Every structure is written in structure tokens, then in C-alpha cells.
């Protein structure tokens, strides 16, 4: 189980690094919003891997809270988005 946790953590770290690049270099606001939403999903997966590794179930409410923050953030940006046309 330890090898699986290390592999999952490494893959999530690589995903977070690539997504952070997209968030910083995104050409418009929708690319950045998708990157931030993906970072939230990667952090939720990281917390789930940590909960499986440690056997601690008190992290589950944090995962639920992060999913709510991700949904509300995506919905609010979608609703109040201003176009990027210059």
C-alpha cells in the first residue's frame, strides 16, 4: 500500500505543477478558472490519498468543504464573467 501511496502522491504533484503553470500562463480568464478548479480537485484527491494512507477519516469534511468551494467558485466566475476582448 505504501508504494501505491507514493505513486499517487507523485502523480498528483506532477498534475499540480502542470496545472499551476496553466493558471499562471493562461491566456484568458476561463483558462485560469479551469486551472484553479483543477487545482482544487487535485488537492481534494491529495487529501483523499492522505486519508487512505493515514487511516484518518477526520479529513473527509475538509474534502467536502473543498468541493463546495470549487463549485461555488466556478459557478460565480461563470455567472459574472466579463469578456477578455480588448
- Note the beta-strand portion: under 5%
Mean pLDDT: 88
Our measurement of the CA-to-CA distance between the termini, rounded to an integer number of angstroms, reads 52 Å
Order of helices and strands: HHH
Q: Radius of gyration in whole Å, from Cα?
A: 15 Å
The percent of residues in helical segments reads over 70%
Number of helices, where a helix is a run of at least 4 consecutive DSSP H or I residues? 3
- Give a count of the beta strands, DSSP E runs of length 2 or more: 0
Keywords: Cell membrane, Membrane, Transmembrane, Transmembrane helix, Transport
Family: Belongs to the CPA3 antiporters (TC 2.A.63) subunit F family.
Organism: Antrihabitans stalagmiti
Subcellular location: Cell membrane
Provide structural commentary:
The protein is an all-alpha fold. It has one domain. The protein is 81% helix and 0% strand. It contains three helices and no strands. The protein has helices at residues 2-25, 29-54, 60-79. α1 runs antiparallel to α2 (29-54) and α2 packs antiparallel against α3 (60-79). The longest helix is centred in the middle third of the chain and has 26 residues, at 29-54. The chain is flat. It is found in: Cell membrane.
What is this structure, in a nutshell?
By secondary structure, the chain is mainly alpha-helical.
Amino acid at each position: 500500500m505504501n508504494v501505491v501511496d507514493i505513486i499517487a502522491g507523485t502523480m498528483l504533484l506532477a498534475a499540480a505543477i502542470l496545472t499551476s503553470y496553466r493558471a499562471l500562463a493562461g491566456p484568458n480568464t476561463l483558462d485560469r478558472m479551469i486551472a484553479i478548479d483543477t487545482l482544487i480537485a487535485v488537492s481534494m484527491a491529495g487529501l483523499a490519498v492522505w486519508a487512505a494512507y493515514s487511516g484518518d477519516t477526520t479529513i473527509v469534511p475538509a474534502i467536502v468543504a473543498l468541493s463546495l468551494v470549487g463549485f461555488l467558485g466556478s459557478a460565480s466566475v461563470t455567472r459574472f464573467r466579463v469578456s477578455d476582448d480588448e
